[in-house]
Design goal:
Blueprint (H helix, E strand, L loop, with lengths): L2 H14 L6 H11 L7 H9 L1 H11 L1 H16 L6 H22 L1 H5 L5 H20 L12 H11 L9 H11 L4 H29 L4 H26 L8 H16 L7
Helix pairs in contact: 1-2, 1-12, 2-8, 3-11, 4-11, 4-12, 5-6, 6-9, 6-11, 8-10, 8-13, 9-10, 10-11, 11-12
Protein backbone atom coordinates (compact mmCIF):
# COMPACT_ATOMS: atom_id res chain seq x y z
CA UNK A 1 0.00 0.00 0.00
CA UNK A 2 1.36 3.41 -0.97
CA UNK A 3 1.31 6.44 1.32
CA UNK A 4 -1.23 8.16 -0.93
CA UNK A 5 -3.54 5.15 -0.73
CA UNK A 6 -3.15 5.17 3.05
CA UNK A 7 -4.04 8.89 3.19
CA UNK A 8 -7.14 8.33 1.05
CA UNK A 9 -8.29 5.44 3.22
CA UNK A 10 -7.61 7.46 6.38
CA UNK A 11 -9.80 10.27 5.07
CA UNK A 12 -12.59 7.82 4.18
CA UNK A 13 -12.41 6.24 7.65
CA UNK A 14 -12.47 9.57 9.45
CA UNK A 15 -15.38 10.90 7.39
CA UNK A 16 -17.58 7.81 7.60
CA UNK A 17 -16.87 6.13 10.95
CA UNK A 18 -19.54 8.03 12.86
CA UNK A 19 -21.88 8.94 10.02
CA UNK A 20 -24.68 6.40 9.38
CA UNK A 21 -23.26 5.41 5.99
CA UNK A 22 -20.92 2.51 7.02
CA UNK A 23 -17.20 3.19 7.30
CA UNK A 24 -16.30 -0.46 6.65
CA UNK A 25 -18.51 -0.46 3.57
CA UNK A 26 -16.88 2.71 2.24
CA UNK A 27 -13.38 1.46 3.06
CA UNK A 28 -14.12 -1.83 1.28
CA UNK A 29 -15.46 0.05 -1.75
CA UNK A 30 -12.49 2.44 -1.79
CA UNK A 31 -10.03 -0.43 -1.45
CA UNK A 32 -11.73 -2.13 -4.38
CA UNK A 33 -11.51 1.04 -6.50
CA UNK A 34 -7.80 1.31 -5.60
CA UNK A 35 -7.26 -2.26 -6.77
CA UNK A 36 -6.49 -3.63 -3.32
CA UNK A 37 -7.62 -7.18 -2.42
CA UNK A 38 -10.54 -6.38 -0.09
CA UNK A 39 -10.73 -9.90 1.35
CA UNK A 40 -6.98 -10.16 2.02
CA UNK A 41 -6.32 -10.74 5.72
CA UNK A 42 -3.82 -7.89 6.04
CA UNK A 43 -6.23 -5.44 4.36
CA UNK A 44 -9.11 -6.38 6.66
CA UNK A 45 -6.75 -6.01 9.63
CA UNK A 46 -5.63 -2.59 8.36
CA UNK A 47 -9.27 -1.52 8.09
CA UNK A 48 -9.84 -2.41 11.77
CA UNK A 49 -6.62 -0.81 13.00
CA UNK A 50 -7.11 2.64 11.46
CA UNK A 51 -10.42 2.88 13.35
CA UNK A 52 -8.26 3.52 16.42
CA UNK A 53 -7.62 6.99 15.01
CA UNK A 54 -11.35 7.69 15.03
CA UNK A 55 -11.63 6.37 18.59
CA UNK A 56 -8.81 8.66 19.74
CA UNK A 57 -10.86 11.51 18.28
CA UNK A 58 -13.84 10.41 20.41
CA UNK A 59 -11.66 10.25 23.52
CA UNK A 60 -10.37 13.76 22.89
CA UNK A 61 -13.74 15.26 21.98
CA UNK A 62 -15.57 13.74 24.97
CA UNK A 63 -12.60 13.87 27.35
CA UNK A 64 -14.48 15.85 30.01
CA UNK A 65 -17.47 13.46 29.96
CA UNK A 66 -15.23 10.40 29.92
CA UNK A 67 -13.12 11.55 32.88
CA UNK A 68 -16.29 12.36 34.84
CA UNK A 69 -17.80 8.93 34.10
CA UNK A 70 -14.59 7.04 34.89
CA UNK A 71 -14.12 8.90 38.18
CA UNK A 72 -17.76 8.30 39.15
CA UNK A 73 -17.47 4.61 38.21
CA UNK A 74 -14.32 4.14 40.30
CA UNK A 75 -15.87 5.92 43.29
CA UNK A 76 -19.06 3.90 43.00
CA UNK A 77 -17.11 0.64 43.16
CA UNK A 78 -16.00 1.41 46.72
CA UNK A 79 -18.78 3.70 47.94
CA UNK A 80 -22.42 2.75 47.49
CA UNK A 81 -23.57 6.32 48.24
CA UNK A 82 -21.50 7.63 45.30
CA UNK A 83 -23.37 5.53 42.74
CA UNK A 84 -24.75 8.32 40.58
CA UNK A 85 -26.04 8.09 37.00
CA UNK A 86 -22.47 8.52 35.72
CA UNK A 87 -21.49 5.43 37.72
CA UNK A 88 -24.35 3.48 36.16
CA UNK A 89 -23.51 4.85 32.71
CA UNK A 90 -19.99 3.44 33.07
CA UNK A 91 -21.49 0.00 33.62
CA UNK A 92 -23.94 0.59 30.76
CA UNK A 93 -21.06 1.25 28.37
CA UNK A 94 -19.29 -1.94 29.44
CA UNK A 95 -22.43 -4.06 29.24
CA UNK A 96 -23.49 -2.61 25.88
CA UNK A 97 -20.09 -3.40 24.39
CA UNK A 98 -20.13 -7.10 25.32
CA UNK A 99 -22.45 -8.39 22.55
CA UNK A 100 -20.37 -7.09 19.64
CA UNK A 101 -17.17 -8.23 21.36
CA UNK A 102 -18.46 -11.79 21.71
CA UNK A 103 -20.06 -12.01 18.27
CA UNK A 104 -17.08 -10.33 16.60
CA UNK A 105 -14.60 -12.72 18.19
CA UNK A 106 -16.61 -15.87 17.46
CA UNK A 107 -17.44 -14.82 13.91
CA UNK A 108 -14.11 -13.27 12.91
CA UNK A 109 -13.46 -15.77 10.10
CA UNK A 110 -16.80 -15.00 8.47
CA UNK A 111 -16.45 -11.25 9.01
CA UNK A 112 -12.97 -11.13 7.48
CA UNK A 113 -13.88 -13.63 4.75
CA UNK A 114 -17.28 -14.08 3.05
CA UNK A 115 -18.69 -10.80 4.36
CA UNK A 116 -15.84 -8.83 2.77
CA UNK A 117 -17.63 -8.65 -0.54
CA UNK A 118 -18.86 -5.57 -2.37
CA UNK A 119 -22.13 -7.41 -3.04
CA UNK A 120 -22.65 -7.58 0.72
CA UNK A 121 -21.79 -3.87 1.06
CA UNK A 122 -24.25 -2.84 -1.65
CA UNK A 123 -27.14 -4.93 -0.32
CA UNK A 124 -26.55 -3.84 3.28
CA UNK A 125 -26.44 -0.15 2.32
CA UNK A 126 -29.83 -0.49 0.64
CA UNK A 127 -31.57 -2.81 3.12
CA UNK A 128 -30.49 -1.08 6.34
CA UNK A 129 -31.74 2.23 4.97
CA UNK A 130 -35.25 0.88 5.55
CA UNK A 131 -34.42 0.31 9.23
CA UNK A 132 -33.22 3.90 9.55
CA UNK A 133 -36.48 5.14 8.04
CA UNK A 134 -38.41 2.92 10.46
CA UNK A 135 -36.42 4.27 13.40
CA UNK A 136 -37.17 7.89 12.56
CA UNK A 137 -40.82 7.20 11.66
CA UNK A 138 -41.58 5.60 15.03
CA UNK A 139 -39.28 7.81 17.13
CA UNK A 140 -40.91 9.48 20.12
CA UNK A 141 -37.67 11.04 21.44
CA UNK A 142 -39.35 11.08 24.85
CA UNK A 143 -36.26 10.34 26.94
CA UNK A 144 -32.88 11.99 27.39
CA UNK A 145 -29.50 10.65 28.50
CA UNK A 146 -30.28 10.66 32.22
CA UNK A 147 -33.28 8.41 31.53
CA UNK A 148 -31.25 5.78 29.72
CA UNK A 149 -31.55 2.31 31.26
CA UNK A 150 -29.49 -0.88 31.24
CA UNK A 151 -32.19 -2.50 29.10
CA UNK A 152 -31.79 0.26 26.50
CA UNK A 153 -28.05 -0.18 26.30
CA UNK A 154 -28.18 -3.98 26.13
CA UNK A 155 -30.64 -3.82 23.23
CA UNK A 156 -28.61 -1.16 21.43
CA UNK A 157 -25.44 -3.20 22.04
CA UNK A 158 -27.09 -6.28 20.53
CA UNK A 159 -28.24 -4.31 17.48
CA UNK A 160 -24.69 -2.96 17.14
CA UNK A 161 -23.67 -6.49 16.14
CA UNK A 162 -25.46 -5.96 12.81
CA UNK A 163 -22.70 -3.48 11.96
CA UNK A 164 -20.27 -6.39 11.63
CA UNK A 165 -21.85 -6.72 8.19
CA UNK A 166 -20.09 -4.15 5.96
CA UNK A 167 -22.59 -1.63 4.66
CA UNK A 168 -24.95 -1.65 7.65
CA UNK A 169 -23.18 1.13 9.62
CA UNK A 170 -22.48 0.89 13.34
CA UNK A 171 -23.80 4.38 14.01
CA UNK A 172 -26.80 3.77 11.77
CA UNK A 173 -27.61 0.62 13.73
CA UNK A 174 -27.14 2.08 17.21
CA UNK A 175 -28.86 5.41 16.55
CA UNK A 176 -31.84 3.67 14.92
CA UNK A 177 -32.14 1.30 17.87
CA UNK A 178 -31.95 4.22 20.32
CA UNK A 179 -34.71 6.07 18.48
CA UNK A 180 -36.95 2.99 18.45
CA UNK A 181 -36.45 2.73 22.22
CA UNK A 182 -37.69 6.29 22.68
CA UNK A 183 -34.37 8.08 23.23
CA UNK A 184 -33.93 11.49 21.68
CA UNK A 185 -31.66 11.72 18.65
CA UNK A 186 -28.74 13.49 20.37
CA UNK A 187 -28.77 10.99 23.26
CA UNK A 188 -28.82 8.06 20.83
CA UNK A 189 -25.92 9.59 18.89
CA UNK A 190 -23.82 10.27 21.99
CA UNK A 191 -24.48 6.73 23.20
CA UNK A 192 -23.33 5.46 19.81
CA UNK A 193 -20.02 7.30 20.30
CA UNK A 194 -19.47 5.86 23.79
CA UNK A 195 -20.28 2.30 22.72
CA UNK A 196 -17.77 2.66 19.90
CA UNK A 197 -14.85 3.17 22.29
CA UNK A 198 -14.50 -0.38 23.71
CA UNK A 199 -15.67 -2.15 20.54
CA UNK A 200 -13.42 -0.43 18.01
CA UNK A 201 -10.42 -0.19 20.34
CA UNK A 202 -10.52 -3.92 21.04
CA UNK A 203 -10.92 -4.75 17.33
CA UNK A 204 -8.07 -2.46 16.34
CA UNK A 205 -5.62 -3.77 18.94
CA UNK A 206 -6.55 -7.37 18.15
CA UNK A 207 -5.87 -6.86 14.43
CA UNK A 208 -2.74 -4.70 14.86
CA UNK A 209 -0.17 -7.54 14.63
CA UNK A 210 -1.77 -8.84 11.42
CA UNK A 211 -1.78 -5.38 9.83
CA UNK A 212 1.89 -4.81 10.66
CA UNK A 213 3.10 -8.30 9.80
CA UNK A 214 1.06 -8.55 6.61
CA UNK A 215 1.39 -6.69 3.33
CA UNK A 216 0.46 -3.21 4.60
CA UNK A 217 3.26 -2.34 7.00
CA UNK A 218 3.86 0.14 9.80
CA UNK A 219 4.19 3.45 7.91
CA UNK A 220 0.98 3.27 5.81
CA UNK A 221 -0.96 2.02 8.84
CA UNK A 222 0.36 4.85 11.04
CA UNK A 223 -0.31 7.49 8.37
CA UNK A 224 -3.89 6.32 7.80
CA UNK A 225 -4.54 6.21 11.56
CA UNK A 226 -3.33 9.79 12.08
CA UNK A 227 -5.37 11.06 9.13
CA UNK A 228 -8.48 9.27 10.36
CA UNK A 229 -8.02 10.89 13.79
CA UNK A 230 -7.90 14.42 12.38
CA UNK A 231 -10.83 13.95 10.00
CA UNK A 232 -12.94 12.03 12.55
CA UNK A 233 -12.63 14.81 15.14
CA UNK A 234 -14.19 17.29 12.71
CA UNK A 235 -16.80 14.71 11.72
CA UNK A 236 -17.90 14.18 15.35
CA UNK A 237 -18.38 17.89 15.95
CA UNK A 238 -20.39 18.26 12.75
CA UNK A 239 -22.62 15.21 13.34
CA UNK A 240 -23.63 16.25 16.87
CA UNK A 241 -24.73 19.63 15.56
CA UNK A 242 -26.48 18.04 12.57
CA UNK A 243 -28.58 15.50 14.50
CA UNK A 244 -29.80 18.20 16.87
CA UNK A 245 -31.96 19.55 14.08
CA UNK A 246 -32.09 16.89 11.36
CA UNK A 247 -33.26 13.30 10.99
CA UNK A 248 -30.77 10.53 10.24
CA UNK A 249 -32.91 9.67 7.22
CA UNK A 250 -31.13 12.60 5.55
CA UNK A 251 -28.38 10.06 4.83
CA UNK A 252 -30.72 7.49 3.26
CA UNK A 253 -30.71 8.91 -0.31
CA UNK A 254 -26.91 8.85 -0.31
CA UNK A 255 -26.86 5.26 0.96
CA UNK A 256 -29.31 4.18 -1.73
CA UNK A 257 -27.41 5.92 -4.53
CA UNK A 258 -24.10 4.36 -3.48
CA UNK A 259 -25.69 0.92 -3.01
CA UNK A 260 -27.35 0.95 -6.43
CA UNK A 261 -24.18 2.33 -8.07
CA UNK A 262 -22.08 -0.48 -6.60
CA UNK A 263 -24.61 -3.07 -7.84
CA UNK A 264 -24.39 -1.61 -11.35
CA UNK A 265 -20.58 -1.53 -11.31
CA UNK A 266 -20.44 -5.13 -10.09
CA UNK A 267 -23.02 -6.34 -12.59
CA UNK A 268 -21.16 -4.71 -15.49
CA UNK A 269 -17.79 -6.05 -14.39
CA UNK A 270 -16.27 -2.63 -13.69
CA UNK A 271 -15.72 -3.70 -10.07
CA UNK A 272 -14.85 -7.10 -8.67
CA UNK A 273 -16.72 -8.28 -5.56
CA UNK A 274 -13.49 -9.23 -3.72
Amino acid sequence: MSIWEAIILGIVEGLTEFLPVSSTGHLTLTEGLLGLPVDDRSITAFTAVIQIGAILAVLLYFRTDIVRIVVAWCRGLVNREARTFDYRFGWYTIAGSLPIGIVGFLGQDVIAGPLRSLWVVAIALIVWSAVMVWGERDATQARGENQTTLRDVLIIGAVQCAALVPGVSRSGATISAGLLLGLDRVTATRLSFFLAIPALTAAGLYELPQALDGGVGLVPTAVATVVSFVVAYASIAWLLKFVAGHKITAFVPYRLVVGVLVVVLLATGVLQAT
